[in-house]
Each structure stands twice: as structure tokens, then as C-alpha cells.
Amino acid sequence: MARTTAVSRRVIGGSTLTRPSGDLRAQQMSGNQPILQRAIVVEVFEDPGSFSDEQKQNIADQVNNPELVDVLPGNSILARVISDNQDAGNATSTVLFPFFSSFIQFPIVPGEQVWVIYPDPEKNGTVVGYWLYRVSEQRTVEDVNFSVHDRRFFPEYNPQNLSTSERGRDDPHTPSFPNGAGSQQTQTLRITGSNGENPYDGILEGSAAVRNFTFEPVPRYKKRPGETVIQGKNNSLIVFGEDRTGPVVRADADVPSGQAGCVDIVAGRGRKLPQSEDEEPEETAPRLIKNTRDKLEVNKTPYLQEGKQDNIREGDPDQGNDAARVFVTMQSNADVNFGLTEISFPENTIEFEQPNEGSEGTFGKSYVVAKADNLRFIARKTEDVDGTILIIREGEDENDLAYIHINKDGKFQIYSKEIFLGKSTGKEEPYIKWTEFKKTVQKLQGQIDDLKTFCDDFAVAVQSAFTAAVAVPFNPIAGLTGQVPVILSHKTTLEANLRSKRQEASQAVEDSKSARIFGE
């Protein structure tokens, strides 16, 4: 086939960096390449714009398309194409753009394999290529966190290749990181060093991107036919599906009546991980095994050990134990599913009712539920922003409107028709309103002042009477008898004042009781 001009190269632009030789370049520009190819990721370029000239030159010296180094978008990769045994014959690296635009960016880790596509390689050659996403492998090899693709070449990763005795052998199986099928003739990556080092080990040891990644066991999620699943490498998951509480096969009782669309956002499924490969998994955790790099991973071949099998609940939704979840659903028994109906609420508190009882269709049955070990709601406060918080239950003012409001000045208000604090559901324990309670105290103080005034007047009258009195045996003391009408007059005034202020105090006591807030 005649060699053609690489139009895409000219569109993208050249570079002053080192280019391959003319013969190699001609080979790269010639066609008849498969459109879809496999490649092994050597490095992931998270921020190509921050590369120094030295870093760019180092990459350019390794690849067949150095003119792209200056224009790499984020999430581009350095890779070695392995389809048709290419790497074994000519270990040349290439840089690849992500196939999807920056709107969607898929995860990939050095050491994993990706699908690569070249637009019309017969015309444009294999200079400008795009990586699509990680290659999907058989269930015994595929791992959400990190797939070791070359394990697929070994018989033990397919139970059909093993006898019954081989499936339940006593000697422990330790997952390794092979290069091909384990022989020189079947190598996936060409060994270029003199020490015979496994190239996969060299990739991980030399990768800067690997330092930004956590190798960890992640439970496998089993999706239903109608679900759309977006899953991260480190146990984060978004499911667009129906209201779901358990296994992929639902019981008849779990079939919703009518529509039940939901969005389930969860991090930390099956988080009660076994602490060793000998420990049985609990709840929705996976069975684990330690690999030759001394790290625990999901045991994808438990049949190799006697008495071992997959945890049938592995990765299923667990509303009670998953670490953190935001659950948005148009129809659900969420109070039941999240265990709220099993809580023993204290006596003398407002009765907890199922809000969707008796309702038809989806009305009254939609929920947004957030559950985690710790919840935080933060309204921003900066020089430019005065954040506010409003939690509201719609209703008519003074009838059933209720809300919690924190305004931009940090003022906190709770409003409701009736507010009960602590163990209280009735109006027998009203809270006291300060302004009215103050009137009560003032009325009581007025009574005390009147008593004090009477006592003072009485003391003055007695003192005056004794000062001017002359005692004649067997005769009234004129000074004292003259003060009796004065004292009686003061007594009458005191009784009237006390009676009036006692009534006012009693009314103030009644007025000081809140008609809206009650509690212990």
C-alpha cells in the first residue's frame, strides 16, 4: 500500500524536539493498522502545562510523535502499544490524547491497559492517537481499583481449565504481576534492561502519577439492567436507577408500584473490610487476598482455595453501613430502608409518622436522604459573600409554615406554629416570655414595696406616739390612741394596693407563658 501524508500532523503543528528517523517515520505514517489497539499505560499526564523544558525533552526522546508534547491536553498518557506483539518487536512509546473531551475524563493508572484508536490510520498513520478507556477483562481479572491484565493468560484464572482438586487446593494462591504468560516468547512488554526486571515494576516505580493514586480493595458492584453506573477507582459510585436496597435480584416485595427512579451517590461501600485474607467478609465487604506486592486486593479467584467463595452480598447497597450516601428518589420507603422506623423514640415526644402512608403514585413518597458518620452544612462567609441557611417546610403563615433560618448577620431563628423542646408534646410546659415575666416580677416587687411603705409608716407612727406620750396610770395613752386611725388608714390603703397588684401579677404570670414554645 502506498504511503500517504499525515494530514493530522500538519494540522496540529510541528516541534523543534527530536523526531524519529526517516525510515521509522515512514513506517509510522504508513497504513494498514487495526483501528482499535491495546496499549499499556506508562505514565498519566495530569498537568502537561506545568512541564519544564527538560521534562518535555525527556518525553520527546521516548516517543514516536514528539511534535505533540507541547500541546498535550490533561489526562493524556504515555503508552506502549502491544497489539500484534508490537512492543516485543520495537519497544517504542507514544503519547495519546484522551478520546473524550474535557467534559468526561476517565480514570487510568500506569500499568493498566487501554483501548487506542487512530482516526483512519491508512491515510493519517499512527502519529495522532486517542485512548478510549481501560480494557475490560474477564471477571477473575477485572478490578475496579487496578486491573492486572496479563493474568488472563494463566489457566487458573478460568475455572473451566482446572480440575475439581485444583480448584480447592491447600497451597495458597498469591496474585502476581506477570509480563505476558510468563515466558520469554509470550512477553507483552519487551525487557530492555540487562537485569531482566519486569517492565511493569519499572513502570510503577518510575511513574510520578502513581504517587497520586491509592491502591486499595474496592467491592464489585452488580448492576441491574436499567441502571446507569458511574464508578470511581476508590470506592465511590453514582447509580442512576430505581429505588434499590439490596441484591441485584430483587424480591417481589421490593418491586415498586409505579415509577421509582432514583440517584444513589455513595462512597465507602462494604467498608468493614477483613483485616487479612483469612478473615471472612462481613455484610457487603469483599473477600481479600494479598498479592506479591504485599498489598491486599479483592480476591477474584476464591475457588482456588478450599472452602472459599465470593461474598454473595459484595458491593450491594447497604443503607445502614455504607460510609456516606446521598439518596435522591421519586418513590421510596426510605424511612424503613434507612432504619428510622426501628428507632425507639422517647415517650412524650411527637409521634414519628410515615409520610407516604395512604398516598397514591409518587406524591408524598419522594425523598432526599443524606447519611454519613458526620454531616456538615456550611454557608460561606468571605469578604465578598455573606452566606445564609434556610431549611423550610412550605405552608401558610401562622398555620403550618415552619423553618430554620440563619441570616447573613449570623442571627438564628426557628419559626413554627408550635415548637416542642425535649420530652414535650403538649402545652403543659410552656416556655416563659421575658417581657411578660418581667411584669410579673415588677408586680411582686410592687407588693413588697407597699409592705415596706406600710412598715415604715407604722414605725414612724409608733415612734411619734411614744415620743410625745405621757403615761397616766389606768388611763389610755393619748399619743398612742391618736395614731390608731393613721395606722388603720395605712392598712386599708395597703390591702387595696396588694389586692390590685396581686391580680395584676396573676395576669402577668398567665401572659408570660409562651403559646408557641413548649418543653422540659
Please provide a brief summary of the model.
This protein has 520 residues and is of the alpha+beta class. Helix content is 22%, strand content 18%.
The whole-number mean of residue pLDDT values reads: 84
Spatial extent as radius of gyration: 41 Å
Overall tally of domains: 4
Termini distance?
91 Å
Uncertain segments: 1-29
SSE string: HHEHEHEEHEHHEEEEEEHEEEEEEHHE
User: How many strand units?
Assistant: 18
| Alpha-beta classification | alpha+beta
Query: What summary fits the major beta sheet?
Result: 5 strands, mixed, barrel
Shape: elongated
Oligomer designation: single chain
What would the keywords be for this entry?
4 domains, five-stranded mixed β-barrel, 18 strands, 520 residues, alpha+beta, 10 helices
Write up this protein.
By secondary structure, the protein is an alpha+beta fold. The protein has 4 domains: 7-134, no CATH class; 214-270 and 315-376, no CATH class; 377-417, no CATH class; 430-519. The protein is built from 10 helices and 18 strands. The chain has helices at residues 7-12, 22-29, 53-60, 86-89, 121-124, 164-167, 199-206, 334-337, 434-468, 478-512; strands at 36-45, 76-81, 93-98, 113-117, 130-134, 228-231, 236-242, 261-267, 288-290, 296-298, 324-329, 367-372, 389-393, 402-406, 412-415, 419-421, 430-432, 513-519. Strand 9 and strand 10 (296-298) form a beta hairpin. The model is unreliable at 1-29 (pLDDT under 50).
